[in-house]
Amino acid sequence: MASGEYTRDQRYIATRITADGRDGYPVEPGRYRLVVSRACPWANRAIIVRRLLGLEDVLSMGVAGPTHDERSWSFGLDPGGRDPVLGIERLQEAFLSRFPGYDKGITVPAIVDVPSGAVVTNDFAQLTIDLSLEWTAFHRPGAPRLYPAELRDEIDEVNAVVFRDVNNGVYRAGFASSQDAYEKAYQQLFDRLDWLSDRLANQRYLVGDAITEADVRLFTTLARFDAVYHGHFKCNRSKLSEMPVLWAYARDLFQTPGFGDTIDFAQIKEHYYVVHRTINPTGIVPAGPDPSGWLTPHGRESLGGRPFGDGTPPVSDR
């Protein structure tokens, strides 16, 4: 843009996988593959929700490597450089299988229809909500209610401002191409982080007394803040570790089964510092920060709340 502001391309594939199959893709165990990268905050949301709901046995997961080129995410972590289920080298192949000449972003998370090899959706915001609402027949016993009807309006309100100012706000600062655009995004980001600090000072979770979709969406940005956004994206008024309420809140979630066990700081750093050569021309990946602080006591239990509501934690990471 002429103003130097970064604008995210949000032209996602809106097809949905639903219990009634109204878009042509009914929920079926074993039919679909969730493709993610552990580096990506948007994909990290889907990894967390899949794990919390216990969908591992019905929705397989392919993991792309932390770096990619202009063509798309690739499966360099797998033997032979191919996803073992889809048999493809690049996620791009699944997009082109359904839409020859596809000219929008090849993004993760994406869900691919295994029998046809064609992508179904990459609409990350709707995807996790549908895992909560459309895949209920296959949730594990004790799965939490991440998008309960009685809190939905408030969750949506919080998600909207957190996406604008925080989730996408760090990118608007990092990819700004003018001083004014950068400073505007920077100010909006830290104003919202201050607002979140005030909101969370006396309540353990963002909405209600248990973890919801809102917490998942905020966590994946906070988890990357000190490792990437503070330095790489110039979001440097304060580190997360210098914002007491948000740092304690983030550690609380990190230490909750289903959250910290999905985080790979090495892959996160490699992605941002290697791929974004316009920001980091040398491609040097920083050695720090020391991640051990994530496991220190957070004291948030004193605020009450139950992480999984009436449910239970996921048993093990698979």
UniProtKB/TrEMBL annotation:
Cellular component GO terms, alphabetical: cytoplasm
Site description Lowers pKa of active site Cys, residues in chain: 229, 272
A UniProt-annotated Pfam family: GST_C_2
Disordered, as annotated region: 289-318
Domain GST C-terminal positions: 148-275
Residue numbers binding glutathione: 73
GO molecular function annotations of the record: glutathione transferase activity
Positions of the catalytic residues: 40 (nucleophile), 171 (proton donor/acceptor)
InterPro entries, per database record: Glutathione-S-Trfase_C-like, Glutathione-S-Trfase_C_sf, Glutathione_S-Trfase, GST_Omega-like_C, GST_Omega/GSH, Thioredoxin-like_sf
Matches recorded under Gene3D superfamilies: 1.20.1050.10, Glutaredoxin
UniProt organism field: Actinoplanes cyaneus
Protein name per its UniProtKB record: Glutathione S-transferase
Coiled-coil annotated residue ranges, if any: none
Segment forming the signal sequence: none
